[in-house]
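Troubleshooting log. The previous run stalled partway through. Resubmitting the same two chains, unchanged.
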Amino acid sequence: MQIAHALQSTDLGTMIRESALVFPVLLSTHLACIAVFGGMILATDLRLLGWAFTGRPLADVVNGLKNWKRLGFCIMVTMGALLAGSEAEKYSINPFFWCKMTTLALIGVHAMIFRPRVYNKVAEFDRAGILPGRAKLAGALSLLLWFSMVTFGRLIGYYEPKNPTQAQSAIHSTFTPDASPVNAHRG
Amino acid sequence: MMFFLPILALLAYDPTAYPLNNNEWSFPLMEIIHIAGFALSIGTICVVDMRLLGVGIFHEAPSQALKDTAMWSLAGLLLVPITGFAIFFSDPVMYMHNQSFRFKVAVLTIAIVYNYTIRRWAARTGPSGATAASIGAAILLLGGLALFIWDLHGGFGVAGVAAIIAGGLAIALFPSMRKRPEGSWGPAHALIGAVSVLLWISVVFGGLFIAFV
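Second attempt completed without errors. Output:
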């Protein structure tokens, strides 16, 4: 909690939290990245599952979208880190935030496992003309992980601490002082 | 939007009896599906838009990218209004007075019209769809003007300006687009793709700002 307090008390954290415009703009950019680049991840996953873009070689879809997905991921994580850092105390007691972080770590594990086994071998799969089971598994797990990420991300806004001390901390770091718990997260 | 109020009053609509307001998880669940619908539609639409921008996501013509993504974009675009209406009726009066919500609804409509007329024509090769694109541009210009006059300083007005720019730009690009050889790509395609990306990002920003306005 002390680390969280120190993090959100930095000049940058305070500026983001107290600005009427910076926080919503960062949040909107974070979500826009999820929509645009998340859609590209979805396109790759659907191709790996053999449900869409089946007329295109696997390598075209996977390699063609790779750099854009990486760019989107970097912007998304940067925005997310700025948002989380600006309200670190509130997020540090939120179980959905930690679920989201765990999912993010699992996405990293997914990449480590499947990059050498699937994503770096798509040209071989195209040449062989078969879509192996591990490629479908990679697509299905990726879909599941990213949907969980969106789900936990949205649920962060609905967590209300039951412990009074935690509640006090959360109230202090609420981004809109006059917003009700329900309406503050509607969109 | 205000014409909804007397209709709701006439129906004696009571949001407290609405299922989404009486279950802890139904509202968040609806929002998650709403966001997933947006990710599905905007993501697949942007795959084509980026191809129009010439950044070459696929080694294929924009028309092929459009064909490959059309079904998924449509599925997402069907999810968005269905879940959107469900969310809207949880607190219609609040939403109707929210300028960001007005902007989001208007710019979403503009983006859909643009998507299925002007952008579709740009992504396809040959003369097919030119009439639909002309009608789309006319709808955007006239509709945008109406929105602007109706709600000069509000969310509809801002969305109206976006519609006028999108429609006007399309009309300005029509002569060069009509002369294009089969399967060609040029700056006009890139501009149409860029406007589409901007419109969809505006929808996301409008949706997020609902909570802050």
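Takeaways: The interface with chain B takes residues 20, 23-25, 27-28, 31-32, 34-43, 46, 52-53, 55-56, 60-61, 64-65, 68, 147, 150-151, 154-155, 158, 176, 179, 182-187 of chain A (CB under 8 Å). Residues 33 and 39 of chain A are 9 Å apart (CA to CA).
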